[in-house]
Specification:
Its cofactor is Mg(2+). The chain has 445 residues and is α+β, with helices and mostly antiparallel strands. The chain contains 12 helices and 16 strands. The radius of gyration is 22 Å and the shape is globular. The protein starts with a helix and ends with a helix.
Length: 445
């Protein structure tokens, strides 16, 4: 740690850094930032930076407001979009109480706890997200709807298109920040794009996702367009998911790989998938945390709506890909429900906890879904035992409220805050009179 701190202090001096932003995330997943001058960095390392936690969503009650932000020197990076005038860097922070205890409300700490639990069982947890988002001409609506920057489709090459320049600039900026990108392309919706981050341990990936969202927003501003991670901004077009590939390693060995297993998936891998399936409905209020998330899950367009698993089945909730037969290190499973607006720290914590529960309890993997699940009738799905994911935030919150797994993994403070926050959102949404109702009913009733 001292070497890392020395490196940070030396780099600040050599590169002429003028400001250092300390980043952390509230319970909803919004990035928070406070800038300090280089002279304050050494003190922040030693003692942390004090702030009023009661002003941050879900952090503390008013009578225990004092919190400390402790910068993690391993996350130090210079922000490329700030340029050479007043160079600015950032570090992610862990949040603690004044007596040095990790904050029970810090999402990064929730994930660290989950990873420590996995480590006690000999596992390290790796994730690889495919992040979708929409590029719009602006945040303003045109004729009551967002206006995409193009009308292109999946993998389309758009000569002179905004999205090309946008993706190239974003990928270069991410690489400058030390975030490896696997590939990028136009997605199926008009103005929809996808950038996939390379595999990393789950904590690094969660930090990278928070940085990614900021980079995408900054590049959009720079190029005169608007980027949104809203799960379903356009009716009749696909929503933005964050399909997440996951694997457990025991040392250098991929615990999901068995060359003789079905799809080369080991017993541990099958039990992990069984855990994801069994607990999927109760974790959905976190992996899909907004009212709008359920417009994506139940709007068709390849979003999973039922608790199933499959191999090349795009309608399944969990997919077991087989890209590189015989390459054990690449064995993984893909969870397809999570959307791009999830808090990655909390979502990864629950996906890991659900999978580990499957391993601990020896859950049996149900039969694979080989049909297109959307094209089956309700009676056929019931006969096959395909349980639906929650169809609304209200239903998702009710399922989460009864979940021991979620309560234990998030901890009482975060668990109660998420419930409170999401109930409030549902109540506000339920009170709205929407354009759909007015258009459907006003003139005929």
């Amino acid at each position: 740690m001292d070497k890392q701190r020395d490196f940070v202090l030396r780099t600040i001096e050599e590169r002429g850094v003028k400001f250092v932003r300390l980043w952390f995330t509230d319970v909803v997943g919004t990035l928070k930032s406070v800038a300090i001058t280089p002279a304050e960095v050494e003190g922040a390392f030693a003692e942390g930076l004090g702030f009023d936690g009661s002003a941050i969503e879900g952090f503390t009650r008013a009578y225990e407001a004092d919190m400390l932000a402790l910068p993690d020197p391993s996350t130090f990076q210079i922000l490329p979009w700030r340029g050479e005038i007043d160079p600015t860097a950032r570090m992610f922070c862990d949040i603690s109480t004044p007596d040095g205890q990790p904050s029970l409300s810090d999402p990064r700490n929730v994930l660290k706890r989950a990873l420590a639990k996995a480590a006690d069982r000999g596992f390290s947890f790796y994730t690889h997200p495919e992040i979708e988002f929409y590029l719009l001409k602006s945040s303003k609506l045109k004729n009551g709807a967002p206006e995409p920057v193009d009308s292109a489709g999946f993998f389309d090459n758009v000569p002179g298109g905004t999205a090309h320049d946008f993706r190239r600039r974003s990928v270069r900026m991410l690489e400058d920040l030390g975030i490896s990108v696997e590939f990028s392309h136009h997605e199926a919706g008009p103005g929809q794009n996808e950038i996939d981050l390379r595999y990393a341990d789950a904590l690094t990936t969660a930090d990278n996702i928070m940085t990614f969202r900021t980079v995408v927003k900054e590049v959009a501003i720079e190029q005169g367009v608007y980027a949104t991670f809203m799960p379903k901004p356009l009716s009749g077009h696909p929503g933005s998911g964050m399909h997440t590939h996951m694997s457990l390693f025991e040392g250098d060995t991929n615990a999901f790989y068995d060359p003789s297993g079905h799809y080369q998936l080991s017993k541990i891998g099958k039990q992990f998938v069984a855990g994801l399936l069994r607990h999927a409905p109760e974790i959905t209020a976190v992996t899909n945390q907004f009212v709008n998330s359920y417009k994506r899950l139940w709007g068709g367009d390849e979003a999973p709506s039922f608790v199933t698993w499959g191999h090349n089945n795009r309608s399944a909730l969990v997919r077991v890909p087989l890209y590189k037969p015989g390459k054990g290190q690449s064995a993984r499973v893909e969870y397809r429900a999570m959307d791009s607006a999830a808090n990655p720290y909390l979502a990864f914590s629950l996906l890991l906890a659900a999978g580990l529960k499957g391993i601990e309890e020896g859950y049996e993997l149900p039969p694979e879904a080989e049909d297109n699940v959307w094209e089956l009738s309700d009676a056929e799905r019931r006969a096959l035992g395909y349980e639906p994911l929650p169809a609304s935030l209200d239903r998702a919150v009710s399922l989460m409220e009864d979940s021991e797994l979620v309560a234990e993994t998030l901890g009482e403070r975060v668990f109660n805050y998420v419930l409170l926050n999401k109930r409030r959102e549902w109540k506000a949404y339920r009170a709205q009179v929407t354009p759909y109702e007015l258009e459907s009913n006003l003139e005929i009733l």
